[in-house]
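Researcher: Let's walk through a ligand-bound prediction step by step. First, I give you the protein sequence. Second, the SMILES string for adenosine-5'-triphosphate. Third, you return the three-dimensional complex as structure tokens. Ready?
Model: Ready.
Researcher: Here are steps one and two:
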Amino acid sequence: MLPARAGFRSAKVSSMAGRAEIIRTESVTKRFGGVIAVDQVSYLLQENEVAGIIGSNGAGKTTFFNLLSGYYLPDEGIIRYCGEDVTTMTPQQRVARGMTRTFQLTSTFDNLSVVDNLVLAFFRIHKKANLLQLLLHTCKSQRHEPKVVKALETFNLQDLRDKQVKHLSLGEKRRLEIAMAVIAEPKVLLLDEPLAGLAESEIQGILGVLRMHVGSQTILIVEHKLSHVQGFLQRLTVMHEGRVIADGDPEECLRDPEVRRSYWQIEVPPDASGAILS
Ligand SMILES: Nc1ncnc2c1ncn2[C@@H]1O[C@H](COP(=O)(O)OP(=O)(O)OP(=O)(O)O)[C@@H](O)[C@H]1O
Ligand SMILES: [Mg+2]
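Model: Step three, the predicted complex:
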């Protein structure tokens, strides 16, 4: 994955050989003036992988997400989605192909109820209807659409179904946002810090619903709080100053000397990694 350390990928990742390729970036670089926010990143995400990206502040995680989802164009490199070159495609073109990022669907309609937001998310993608038509005709009649009912159940939103989104707590809203992303049945779900700002109980709620999709949904999650997602990730990528410094089995990555130095900013013997993770 990383040109300078091509041998890093773990046995766990290589054992996924044969799975369909969802996202592949080839030497992607993004600069802002003199800052190289993403530096020659080559990355592969395969079908049904649950992968995470961590890195300290300014490591380039969000910029990399913005490149994947089309909010930024790279200065160099290629981004492929299911084999197709999407490097210069708009975010909308990528969403239409099944690449969904929670943040862009966070545009919840705060004056509408939880159930109507789910109806809109479902019909916008599946029926390709325009928003005005949906608002005028669809919401009421489709509140019992089986996929909407199932999403309310799966994401534990039944008790909130008629509540206006503006009255939800941050954790409830985050759960709704992920439900709205999932109901569109994306091929890949890109989650940028879905746990940020949440209380511990809310974090467990989000992780609970994400866990239900492990094995049947390709998920890429950027997270600061490694301790929360660690048991949940099959694969970890660590970024530092725009570069990927480790990629593979999470435990293995965290034992990597460069990760210990750059991410944890401490020199620790390899056998002390258990202490770091707890
Ligand atoms: N729009 C922008 N204009 C100028 N510089 C930017 C812009 N976006 C990001 N940067 C710079 O690029 C680098 C990477 O930033 P990025 O936001 O991708 O990091 P991050 O890993 O997401 O950090 P955090 O953990 O704080 O969210 C930083 O030095 C940042 O200041
Ligand atoms: Mg960020």
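Researcher: And what stands out?
Model: Confidence is low (pLDDT under 50) at residues 1-15, 273-278. The chain has 13 helices and ten strands.
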